[in-house]
Amino acid sequence: MSAFSHFSYWVTIFLMIGGLYIVIARGNLVKKLVGLAIFQTSVYLLYIAPGKLIGGTAPIVADGFQVYSNPLPHVLILTAIVVGVATLALGLGLAVRIREAYGTIEEDEIADQDRATEREERGA
Amino acid sequence: MIGEHLAALQVVVPLMAAPIIVLVRRGAFAWALTMVVSIASLAIALALLVQVREVGVVSYALGSWAPPWGIEYRVDIVNAFVLVLIGLLATIGGPYAWRSFAAEVPEDQHYLGYAMFCLCLAGLLGIAITGDAFNLFVFLEISSLSTYVLIALGRERRALVASYQYLIMGTIGATFYVIGVGLLFLMTGTLNLHDLATRLGDVAHARPVLAALAFVTVGISLKLALFPLHFWLPNAYAYAPSVVSAFLAGTATKVAIYVLLRFYFTVFGKSEIFDSLPTQDIFLVLSVAAMFVASAAAAYQENLKHLLAYSSLGQIGYITLGIALANQAGLTGAIVHLFNHGVTKSALFLLAGCIWFRVHSLRFADLAGLARVMPLTCAGFVVGGLSLIGVPATAGFVTKWYLVLGALETGHWWIVFLPVVSSLIAVWYVWRFVEAAYFREPGPALIGIKEAPPILLLPAYVLVALTVYFGLDTSFTVGTASRAAEVLLGGLR
Amino acid sequence: MRHYLVLRVIAKLLIPFMMVFALYVQFHGDYGPGGGFQAGVIAAASVVLYAIIFGLPTTRKVIPDWLVETMLAAGVLLYATVGLVGILLGGNYLDYFVLGTPPAHGQERGIFWVEMGVGITVFGVMLKIFYMFAGRGREADTE
């Protein structure tokens, strides 16, 4: 039970925290989405890694095999990947629309423009 | 034959409507089909509620794979009640959407808007009905993704940013949830909520289970906009098209609360959550903070929809307070409020939509003297506002009554005062509207403004009437909610 | 990029094989790794390759927008309909056991059609996403 024997968990945790950090710390809308994708990827790993059985084979019953891997995590993560792709596509789509509407994808510049709009409304 | 498949049809009917709408590509057809689907959902939900009252639990094995191996749809009194709420609000929103979309969404996007609405409906119903933790995540994402699109349909460019922020926060929330579920799956090897509850008994105090509890709590709290995880909500509600804000305000956060209830009381069980961890204190503090801070923030908003959104955050505080009390009366209060507040807040958002439809602004400065030109809308708004405050003979009062009862039961007398005092803040923000609409001279912006068209007013008034009705006759809401609270507190049986 | 002879020839050579491989992945999904998701993505990738070499407008003529949108919806509908057939034949929703005798054969049949739906939808969705992003802001671009 050395620390290395759990290396897949360390990778998962690293990706999880790294992804979340990017989402929080970056002001660029596209970079945020990249962080979000990394964050989601860590979850894929969290499910998939324990699903691997050393010496296990695909769960199709055949002669000569006794150890089968559990297929469920893979199925779940296939779904989660599709969800992740959909989220990423939608997020990028929104970023494109925001770029067209504001001319920028930097969060603070967008906030500045929004504040200006608000002041205008209040003044009018 | 239909009777036994109701649980599946509940989700499948709206889910199938969406691709059909995309195939036909006609705005009018899309609206008609959305209407039919909404009414069908409500009918199915009511039928399920009746069934559940008779037999207790309706379990449906998708694909005939027996649970816990297959995905199970499991309806008991708790989620049947939530299903009715979703079906009701969708049905009310249907007729309203016709004019609302016409005024606020470009014509060529109408059918896509309706398709998204159907998907969102299917997703929300799916979250409420499914008995499988991962399936719940999928439905959560179906409803969330369609919600982001619906919010982005808003007419202002700020809607895009609001939608983007919601997307980031919502995805983080859903991912936290799925991490929690993953840890539970690793510990127990099952995803069926009911089966999880049984198997968690063996590993109850293992550290991954506690981590899972934390992840699920944070993820769902993000979705239900528990203070201080609420930053996405005000802008998302304020810049979405009227009918979308109304539907979401009544359903999206409420469904998330249902998920929290389900995880806390069915999966982990009351003793695990509340006796061995300081969950109760945390929720108490956060609820109180929401009730006071968010309500006070509501009073300082310039925009009517922002005010309603912040008020929603405060009202969610009441619901989580009821969950934190974790006794029969408190939970009853929480579940009743889930329903009552959904109805009330939807009514208010629909009326705000009526105002926007005529005035094209929701800023208080532009609403001065509004009651002279739109008396019906304003009157309805005041009734809804009274329910937010919790005046007797409105739905809001019933909730606060049970919350106070629940607080008395715990013996912490100071909690009793919290709902009462925070009601005063509600008086403050509702008064701001009353003051603007009734006691100020109409500005030049209001010249030539007529009352909102009946097709917009009528749905809103149905909900306003329900707000009053559920304040007077509580047999349906409280009766169902108290049985639901019994089921939740009973844990595994 | 259609001026580059090598690219053009290689693309034309590759695309049919990609399509066939997509079909192989689709139909072999019953017994080996594969299925609708992968097949849809591979098929979409071949179209994307075509678009990169020959330009988006040409691709839009080959696979017009309405077809993409139809595929996107039709696949989901096919999936959901298979589920409903399960109900009509006396089983539960998405019950494949009742689709054929013996029940294992029904499973195979059900999964075949469901994967068909998935494949069509994924193909449609991938192309839709590609069209949306690639076509944004350069409607006038004919290259």
In short:
The complex is a heterotrimer of chains A (about 120), B (about 500) and C (about 140). Chain A has about 120 residues and is mostly helical. Chain A has helices spanning about 5-25, 30-50, 70-100, 105-124.
Q: How would the global form of chain A be characterised?
A: elongated
The CATH topology of chain A, please? Helix Hairpins
What is the CATH-assigned architecture of chain A? Orthogonal Bundle
Number of helices of chain C: 5
> Structural class of the secondary elements of chain C?
mainly alpha
Number of domains of chain C: 1
Which two chains have the most extensive interface, and how many residues on each? Answer: A-B, 33 and 29 residues
Beta-strand share of residues of chain A: under 5%
Low-confidence stretches of chain A: none
H/E element string of chain A?
HHHH
Order of helices and strands of chain C: HHHHH
Whole-number tally of structural domains of chain A: 1
Number of strands of chain A: 0
Main sheet characteristics of chain A: none
Quote the beta fraction of chain C: under 5%
Which oligomeric form is depicted? heterotrimer
Helix content of chain C: over 70%
Number of strands of chain C: 0
Q: What would you say this structure looks like, in words?
A:
- The complex is a heterotrimer of chains A (124), B (493) and C (143).
- Chain A has 124 residues and is mainly α.
- Chain A has a single domain, classed as Helix Hairpins, CATH 1.10.287.3510.
- Chain A is 73% helix and 0% strand.
- In chain A, α1 packs antiparallel against α2 (29-51) and α2 packs antiparallel against α3 (72-102).
- Chain A is elongated.
- With 493 residues, chain B is an all-alpha fold.
- Chain B has 20 helices and 2 strands.
- In chain B, α6 runs antiparallel to α8 (207-223) and α17 runs parallel beside α19.
- The longest helix of chain B is centred in the last third of the chain and has 32 residues, at 328-359.
- The two termini of chain B are 29 Å apart.
- Chain C has one domain (5-135).
- Chain C has helices at 5-28, 36-54, 56-62, 65-88, 103-135.
- Classes of the chains: A mainly alpha (124), B mainly alpha (493), C mainly alpha (143).
- Chains in contact: A-B, A-C, B-C.
- The A-B interface holds A 16, 20, 23, 29, 32, 36, 39-40, 43, 46-47, 50, 72-73, 76, 79-80, 83, 86-87, 90-91, 94-95, 97-98, 101-102, 110, 114, 117, 121-122 and B 134, 137-138, 141, 145, 148-149, 152, 157-158, 160-161, 163-164, 167-168, 171-172, 175, 178-179, 182-183, 185-186, 191, 302, 363, 365.
